[in-house]
Predict the structure.
Amino acid sequence: MGKPLVIVESPAKARTLSRFLGTKYRVEASYGHIRDLPESAKDVPAEIKGKSWGRLGVDTDGDFTPYYVVPPGKRKNVAALKAAMKDASELILATDPDREGESISWHLRELLKPKVKVRRIVFHEITEEAVKAALAEAHDVDENLVRAQESRRILDRLYGYTLSPVLWKKVQTGLSAGRVQSVAVRVIVEREEERIAFRTASYWDLEAKLRSGTTEFGATLAKVGGQRVALGKDFDSLGKLESTTVRLLGEQDAQGLREMLMRRLPWTVTSVEEKPFTQRPSPPFTTSTLQQEANRKLGFSSERTMQIAQRLFQGMDLGDGELEGLISYHRTDSTTLSSKALAEAETAVKELYGPDYHKGARQYQTKVRNAQEAHEAIRPTHFDRTPASLERILESDEMKIYELIWKRAVASQMADAKLLRTSVEITGQTENGGPCTFAASGKAIEFAGFLRAYVEGSDDPTAELGGQETVLPKLTVGDQVWSPDKLDEELILLGLDAKGHQTSPPARYTEASLVKRLEEEGIGRPSTYAPTVATIQRRGYISRQGKALVPSFTAFAVTRLLRDHFADYVDIGFTAEMEEILDKISNGEKDWLTFLAEFYRGDGKHRGLEHLVEDKGQTIEYPIIELGKDEESGLLVRVRVGRYGPFLQLGSQADGGPRASLPEDLAPADLTLEKAIALLKAKAQGPRSVGI
């Protein structure tokens, strides 16, 4: 009898495991999934080819039996695994520790049909210690996890293969609908719709520049006659003031107040408040927070981040033939750390920053609904392996991601930062006796705590990072502000300017803020975010302007069609509800076949996808985006999506009105009626002669 056969997903993981397990085991890679539902007509098994549901690969007439096939590109791998299986003494399935990994293990067992003992092992980091512990705790394949993953795969197939043909007929061939991707597109489109509806509003205030000793600082007009001055946050998206209790200043008001206040110096410091506050470190990374932070700080896409994390997890060559995983498993929604990791982090913090920076182990509560992918946050496998110690081993991108993970995990175990927030109010009198109050605020770090190791990024590039100080000078109530010519005074006014501002439309989603929104809503799982964003970009639903995700007119057409006719299937609540049911299946609390039947055939509460498409298929109209009426012709200006992409049309197709293609880089929110008419006129006039 030969050696035990250990199967993992990737060759890199196989090489790392071989080093730990030595010559007593044979380690082979499956190269990911070895079986799947048929992708194309030629892959459909002969026994189901004539069935009405044959192209789905799922028996929708019966009990939703899936028909799996080995894709052509995987046949060579399967043959190699079957050959390796022939003289194996036992089969050890060592795929990733999540639902997908469990599913791959199940498919391997079903396809290889081993006659020897089969064991499943799970480890959350690829280190010798973790692998040996996993071998000692081997168990059977978890059937509930497999059913949950299988239900997810069948659900996605039913969704995609039922709704996508509707899009081919009514919008454009080659498009796709997906349970998570269509909701992600909807979220991005609805933010663009908010930008289209947005109307700019103007408001003014006064900004004072002051100096005390050698310190210069700014103060902004906050109240006039005890009434708060209107700010951007006080306007709704249509440019109207939402509050009746604030005072809106125009340019003349601001200039008038400026002149009066300049004539009535000195002003007086009327309030000084110092409030100590504590800032706590963020938890160590989950998949979603790692993707968000790498996008904010490094500009990496979710896909790029996950590819780099995969390499760090699978095992890097550390020199002298040493292979080891540098981080724990990177698909997780847990924020907890093992007792071993907590002890190592404590040692690292005390050695690098001193004992004052560690006040005891910290565990964080996972906030994600039904967190269950893996049992630990993303962390370094060894905390003493500092980023500096790996400088010559890791490539630039790998170093950046490793450094983020190491710093965030270390900072999560450090002491709180202690800061002091100072607020100052300075009041001047206008000629009619009404007071004008200016406000200034500052922040000083009294004890840096975790900020010594890590400062979290922000979705708003203009927002200050928590580590930056804005220190105000020491002021006392009663201090007076004098004009610049009073050089011997302690506190002087260097300048006072009336400043005009305009409200900004809601920011487009970045990949970071989209992932955050999907996770908050309970849509998708850690492993789905990166492929979802990559898919909607590949399908032409979004493009990127810097970090912003901009929807295409095709995305508008698809979202409107699905929202108008299949509202449940792009509804955030309904999609999150399906995710919760899949989690119940993984816990053995819900029957998977009942769930699939309810989704596809209906359940009293929802019509069921099969019937909905049958009922509505013929009545759905081609989606049209109306921009408004052309005053000259009295005809509507519309955006339609054709075989070759979106185009403008004046009037209906029956009118035979002129058409014009749309520039590829034109965002829907930036296409005004005036711009559309100009494009149509330019097309009608034809090319302009620029010379002979």
Observations:
- Residues 143-170 form the longest helix (28 residues).
